[in-house]
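Hi all, long-time lurker, first post. I run a small reading group and we've been trying to get comfortable going from sequence to structure in the token notation. Rather than ask abstract questions, I figured I'd post a concrete chain and ask someone more experienced to write out its structure so we can walk through it together at our next meeting. Sequence below, copied exactly:
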Amino acid sequence: FEARSELSARGIKYLQELREDTNKLHNGCKGAAGFRRYLRGHLSSIGAGWRALDEEQVGKLSFNEFCRACRRIGFHGNVKSLWSELDAR
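-- Answer (accepted) --
Happy to help. Here is the structure in token form:
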């Protein structure tokens, strides 16, 4: 039982370290604030970031367009929750 417990504790620690490393790699891109940080850091400004997302320059994006655009610009955060946070409807 102790061996299992030790393996489990090591596994949990490994996953926590992996999550921290991933967050560092992606600048901790969490929520709208992390997304804005990402846009400023990678595309010089939030405005430039939105122009990069909205390729057709129509001033709005569908969820699918937003997901594709985020991947295209290299954003690796949680796009679904980010969309929910940003969606103005």
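A couple of things your group might point at:
The CA atoms of residues 58 and 66 lie 13 Å apart.
The helical segments are 2-25, 31-43, 46-53, 63-72, 79-86.
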